[in-house]
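Blinded run. Sample ID left blank on purpose so nobody reads anything into the name before looking at the predicted structure. Input follows.
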Amino acid sequence: MRVRPTAKPLWWSRLRPLREPGSAPRARLLVVPHSGGGPNRYLRLFRDLPDDVEILGLTLPGRERRVTEPPGAGLDEVLDSLATIPGPEVPAVVLGHSLGATVGLHLAHALGRHCLGLIASGQEPRDSAVGWLTEDSGDEDVLRLLELGGDKTHLAIADAEWRAALLDTLRADLRLGAESSERSGGVRIDAPITVLCGREDRLVDLAALEGWGAYSAVGCEVHVVPGGHFALFDSVNRPRYLEAVERRLSGAAHPSGRPPRA
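Blinded prediction complete.
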C-alpha cells in the first residue's frame, strides 16, 4: 500500500542544473509526461537546449520521486502547482506528450502572457470525456492502451502487486485526462501551438490534429513524423522536437539584455 508522505510534494523538478546556480533563467521549458510516465525520460530530448533555459518536469503522484504517494490528481491541483515553481516568472514553453498535451493546454492557458507556445505531441484535441476509459474499464482494456501505444515494457510485469500499482496509476491519469478534456471547451491561448505526431500512431486520428488550431488565437501548425505513439523518443525525430521548442523559446530575451548562448 502506498502511503502519502507528510513532506510537501514536489510537483516540478529541475531536470538539469542551470549554467549558473542561483541565476535567473531566460526562459523555461515545462515538460508534461505521458500517462503513467515521469519526466526524467524526457531530459535526453532537450539537454542540448541553451543552458540559460530552465527545464522543469511535472511529476504526478505515484511515479519517480513521488512513487510512495497514492496516484491521482485533479486538474486544479496541477494548475495550482505552477505557483510552487521557485524563482521569478519568466517566459515558458509547455511541451506535453499524449495525456501531457491535454493537460498542457490548461497549463499554457494558466500561464497567460508568460506562455510562449504549446508543443502538443502524440495527442488529438478533445473537449469531452468521450474516448477516455472509465472507472469501470477492465484491466485488459487499460493495458490494451499500452499495447496500442507500443510501450510493451510494462506488459511483461508478472508481479501482481506491481501490475496493480501500474493499473492504479494509469486509471488515475485517465481520470485526469477525461477531466482536462471536459474542461477544454472554450479554452484559447494567446500563443502558437505546434503539433507533432507519429505517422503510425495507433492512438491518434491524424485527420483530427488540425483541430488543435481552435485552441490558439495566434496559429497552429501540424507536423507528422516517422514512428508510432512514442516517436518523440526515436533518435531520427529528436532534432525536430528540439527545433520546435527552440523556435518558441527564441522570443524570450535574457533578463540581462544579453543574447542567449547557443
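Unblinding after everyone has recorded impressions. Confidence is low (pLDDT under 50) at residues 1-6, 255-262.
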